[in-house]
Write a structure and sequence with these properties.
By secondary structure, this protein is α/β, with parallel strands linked by helices. It is built from 8 helices and 11 strands. α3 packs across α4. It is globular. The structure holds adenosine-5'-diphosphate (ADP) and magnesium ion. Magnesium ion (MG) binds next to α1.
């Protein structure tokens, strides 16, 4: 199921060239298929969540998009090229735990690392000498301002709160003005208030800069109001569509091949009931 509707009130993207196209892809790890026959498409500026139980292959999907893991069947195109080809136009925040409290490196230095020749390869092109240093400083200050981290960016990152650390890491992912942000559980380990504020920060960046966002979430609720699409991974396959179509008892029961209930609690939060865990149900 591929649907490209946008959330109400969101501006249409200026171009329709897809940012990510996955076509009948399969990923294998350790000799077994993690997911198969996955097809999806993400357009510029779309905010998309990747959902599903632990171990189902959400991080694997992100790694395939980044070219860190080749798909065994099918094809993935990212920004019009093979996965990995345009990683300098992608901001990536891997799944992680909090920094150790004794970590001395300052937030601002963590942000700056996003510019330097890191594992994404190419450093900033064609900016020489003092001009290059000044440009780098300006970019660091710009993204720190953008995520609202000016007040603590010069503190050792180990002494920043979880929410502050996450904002600094998002600034690092944004520093090259990416067209695509790939965020692996960026809300994990944050309290409810910080989940809400980091979610709305990501939404604002996506809207104002027309950045497509592919975000793995453990709990869809903090981002639900902002999402254009969700990708639900289960049972070795995936369904993509608007949240109100995908996160339903009918769609999830079909995807899992077993009865699933979707309830709303008193606060209006969605609760998915009856998901088998990923290891128990996927046998291919
Ligand atoms: N290098 C590896 N070799 C074999 N199996 C792996 C490897 N990395 C991850 N897996 C397995 O692949 C499955 C999907 O992992 P992952 O994509 O990290 O899941 P998720 O992010 O949804 O929790 C898990 O069952 C995991 O144990
Ligand atoms: Mg993961």
């Amino acid at each position: 199921m591929i649907v490209t509707e946008r959330a109400p009130g969101r501006p249409a993207p200026p171009t329709h060239t897809p940012v990510i196209v996955v076509d009948q892809a399969e990923a294998r790890l350790g000799g077994r298929a993690i997911w198969s026959d996955v097809s999806l498409q993400i357009g510029p500026g779309q905010f998309v969540a990747v959902l599903g139980p632990n171990g189902v292959g959400k991080s694997t999907l992100l790694k395939a998009v980044l070219g860190l893991l080749p798909v065994s069947t099918g094809q993935i195109k990212v920004l019009g090229g093979s996965p990995g080809r345009h990683n300098d136009r992608i901001g990536y925040l891997p799944q992680r735990r909090a920094f150790d409290p004794t970590t001395r490196i300052r937030g601002i230095d963590i942000v700056r690392l996003g510019l330097d020749g890191d594992r994404w390869g190419t450093p900033l092109p064609a900016i020489l000498g003092g001009r290059r240093a000044r440009d780098a400083r300006e970019r660091v200050e710009e993204v720190i301002g953008l995520v609202g981290a000016s007040g603590y960016a010069r503190r050792p990152i180990g002494q920043c709160s979880g929410g502050e650390q996450q904002r600094l890491l998002i600034a690092q992912a944004l520093i090259r003005h990416p067209e695509l942000l790939v965020l692996d559980e960026p809300l994990d380990s944050l309290d409810v208030t910080n989940q809400a504020s980091v979610s709305s920060l990501i939404r604002d960046i996506s809207r104002t800069r027309n950045v497509a966002v592919l975000l793995v979430a453990h709990d869809v609720n903090p981002i639900l109001p902002y999402l254009d699409q969700v990708i639900y991974l289960a049972h070795g396959g995936a369904v993509m569509g608007p949240p109100e179509q995908v996160i339903t008892a009918d769609t999830l029961s079909m995807l899992y091949g077993t009865p699933i209930d979707v309830l709303r609690d008193r606060a209006g939060r969605l609760v998915v009931v009856g998901q088998p865990d990923a290891h128990a149900e996927h046998r291919r």
